[in-house]
Amino acid sequence: MSSDRPLVKNTVSRRDFVRSGALVAAACVAPSGVLALAQDRPSVDEASLIRLGLASYTFRNFSRAQMIAFMKQLNVFALNAKDVKDHLPMDAQEEASALADYSAAGIRLHAAGAIYFTKNEDADIRPKFEYCKRAGIAVIVAGDPAPETLPRMEKFVKEYDIRIAIHNHGPEDKLWHSPIDVLRAVKDMDPRIGCCIDVGHAVRAGADVVQAIHEAGPRLFNVHMKDLTNFQSKESQVAVGDGIMPVRKMFEALIATKYQGFVDLEYEIHADDPMPGVIGSFAYMRGVLAGMGFASKD
Q1: How far apart are CA 139 and CA 141, in angstroms?
Q2: pTM to 2 decimals?
Q3: Would you tell me how many other CB atoms lie within 10 Å of the CB of residue 51?
Q4: What is the pLDDT of residue 295?
Q5: Looking at 58-67, 166-175, 232-241, 246-255, which range is the least confident one?
Q6: H helix runs in the chain, sequence order
Q7: Which residues make Cβ contacts (< 8 Å) with residue 263, sequence separation at least 6?
Q8: How far apart are the first and last CA of the chain?
Q9: Rounded CA gap, 272 and 140, in Å?
Q10: CA distance 284 to 15
Q11: Which is it for the CA torsion 196, 200, 201, 207, positive or negative?
Q12: Hey, how many other C-beta atoms are within 10 angstroms of the C-beta on 188?
């Protein structure tokens, strides 16, 4: 699989090339992180949209207050929250405090996870749907639900009208190596049960992520974005744009399939000092979008 980054002369690095374009895009990015076609300013209904967000696991070693400060620096206000540190606690009272902090900062929670469904029991499943209902979250990113648990989860999807996006965890995952495995399992279920494509894990499992986006179509509810320099090595993760992930082709596929969810950066390395890589990743993604003719909707 080839890289989609622009080719430039050796006197200018690919990163510097993209950063120059990203300055324009980043300067006019809407607080929501929504990017739309700039030419002729089409309406929201007419424009193809790519929405960038953040997976809170990126800042798993930092408190909620620190993460909020980082998000303001990044000009990213869309969050895929996880019950790690104090980001979005499962306890109702502590969750309410977190939601108040996010609301005050102008941060919107669009997904939660990964949330693990370890038991095929109503008593295990219902509290997790209640947790997301309280937060107004529309998508649960589900980690490793057993296939026999899916029919029971489907009942709650119908009751709560909250979508389930099953997360693929690569070749190490006993159940869901790639999004293709997920799609096979849910193809006859409620259309609100689909997948979260983790692009890093997907390529390590041998999946073509561009093809997987097309195959998932309306059952794709979330994307975890990362980059690798070697599609066989989990340890080769780098900032988005420094590896070989076909970012532009993935964005093109998301636009072509009219994807309605978020592309959430999940930067899993340098946990004690993630901001340099996170800044570079958002700059690169914004630069790619600017190069595709996209700018802030506003």
Answers
A1: 6
A2: 0.85
A3: 19
A4: 58
A5: 166-175
A6: 14-27, 64-74, 92-105, 122-135, 150-160, 179-186, 199-204, 209-216, 247-256, 275-291
A7: 50, 51, 52, 53, 223, 225, 251, 254, 285
A8: 35
A9: 27
A10: 7
A11: positive
A12: 6
